[in-house]
């Protein structure tokens, strides 16, 4: 309520008689002074800087332009002031707090308050203020009558004149571009209708002024005050003139111009400029030397394009009723792109331009200026000294001097200013040729010293910083249109312009910095995402084509060929014949465009944009577009590889390794082709992604194909082996499904044969296969821990049996006291199965590495094979570890040794060693019980048993080698002891008469042969001493005979 009271009474706020309304502000007066001081004194600065227009009437372009800029700045300042809604509240509150604190109003308050009241309607007030200056202002505006219409020609007129074309007249291509009004050809000379409003009387008295006024009203509907603050000129002018008598014609003019102020003319201009700038950029890229003589064309093109882009940006965001076609330009990116290309040419070949104009100044301009000075009829002494010094300085210029030519620019401007004042003896108004020449010289010196400033002056588009919503919309439209996506890089490049939009009076302003960095990052990120999505779609198409070549699809084709040959009916009638792979490449004409063609075209366009610049600097931050694409490709490649496994945790389904490998190779082939579009190191992407996939988790903590396949093989395939649904067939070197009541959802052979295991090794690599091995060993370690518990439960009986193997009756009595015999054999079988699977994986890894690094693998193998027997075990284990990593088989498995060593030990080493020995005893004396199992029948076709007991051979040898390596015992002695116990136990079942007990006696006998064949520590001679070979021969004969009769 207090603030409302101050605003209502402003500026005469009675503080003494209104204590009740203002009482609540008493406590806050210090805070008000502190917080509003900055705003209050800003208003004071505006008041102090109110411009007193100086009469400057001259043919000097710089002074005329600065004068008009001064008027526009003053007008803009006062109009922006009137738009601050809280101005009265801020000033009134501050003054009240000042009066309460210091006992008197601020000394600036009366004038400041009066100014705020006077400028409630700023244009009306300024019309009164500019009455004394109407003549000078109108003369300055009318002086543009020869320049402004030329800058506002239609696109057809530009096209007919072949504006900006370097190749329209080849014979004059090397001639320097000249103009009587050099500056006005490339500077933005948008005549502000506000200037004519301030000196409106001239509209009724001067036809040229009226013509310029109408032209200005037709070209724009809204004018820029400051950044994104605009001013709707038609409505404001009509509201002012409606109260002035005799201005009905001017009001009608305003209404007519408003109707004509549409965007069609500007739309056609932009269309022309796109083709003109493209031609200009193409010619200059091929012949950069033309930048010297045709520099004026470049800056004209940049200026024209800049004006049209800013016009579109301003009107598209502020005009409510508009034609969509006129105010939405989907090809604006192309125009901006060619602007950036021209800017890049100027920056790149700046030394070429500087060298050209240094020679031009000394060899031509100096000569012409000297002639003009010599031909002057009257030349006072002061002016003569200045001109002579000026000519001498220019004549002495050389390429070796290079830049800077700041002294020359200063001297030229001093000469122009000296001759421009009204009382000068040598008036430049009377010597127009001299004035034109001086302006031309100033332009040429800028070409040497101020190229960067010239680029900012003619092509700065930092205004986009304050139209971020429209900026982003233009970018999205560019990406959506495939033909324009090649120009999308212009949007991040525009963010480099934003560094020039901060004002030197506000160096702390960070809005432009933050916005430019965020927009540049967003644009590059979106471009990379778009390219990534296109690449992903191409990869999907290629993976589909690769999938058609998989062996699983050939069965139907073979079947059709066989049936066709035998003239049998091929399936249902009307069934379409399956297309063969490669049909997609057959085309009848070049007009047929497939989806893959469209994707490649779109990708090549977008990659051109990403590859356009290696990096860009925005506010001391360097952005590299290619790195955005690389990072996105890495992320998508990682997700795609994991996605292509098609792992379903609920159903435990997963892609075959060979099929995944085919898809990954197709994916990599596409990614490899990206190097044809963009200069990126795709090998780095492969290394980063594929190496991460060999670990348990990737860099984002997500599961990899290594963890997925390891879990699947352990939890699905090997678990079903333990359940008796799958058996390991040594003859096929694969796990095969067994006929059971509940059929499995997958075929084990299709995941475990040699080709699949090789594919798995290709995918996981040595690191991934090592992780797989470690996971397998962890499961073996847990089984061994359980076996040790069973040994502890039977330790006394086993101790007696170890020393009584030559006493059959006593052994039989002790055997009956054993518990969990079946559990021991089952756990040992599980260990054997896991070790058999690992041997398949290791063999596949060895095959893969032998193809990739044959010399290294052969060196490792040679190293392993030549370890002396007397070598220290630690050294030998290091060699075994190296060999195991290369997939080579070792006498002692280092991974198993590490796994068993890590088990918790609560007893002494001697007890541990004893338990290890008794474990071998337990397995040996339990083997005869296998003969009574129906599934223990040996099958010669698979070279094994359907209940996987043939895997006991690998389990016994590997476990014994690992345990006795850990406990530093003799592996050979313990295995001999095992063989003696096992032989003795198995010979006893030969004396059994119970057929149920001995039904598969011969099949179990063969286990002894398998154990010896598998062991590097046992020999057949040793077996012969324990178990007659004739029994083994008869056993083989019996099982083969039984197999033949069963098949018959």
UniProtKB/TrEMBL annotation:
Q: Which GO terms describe its biological process?
A: cell migration; cell projection assembly; cortical actin cytoskeleton organization; neuron projection morphogenesis
Chain intervals with Basic and acidic residues compositional bias: 572-584
Q: Provide the alphabetized UniProt keywords.
A: Cell membrane, Cell projection, Membrane, Transmembrane, Transmembrane helix
Asked whether the UniProt record includes Membrane among its keywords, one would answer yes
Q: Which InterPro entries match?
A: Nck-associated_protein-1
Q: How does it sit in the membrane?
A: Single-pass membrane protein
- Pfam families of this UniProt entry? Nckap1
Q: What is this protein called?
A: Nck-associated protein 1
**Which organism is the protein's source?**
Myripristis murdjan (pinecone soldierfish)
The coding gene here is: NCKAP1
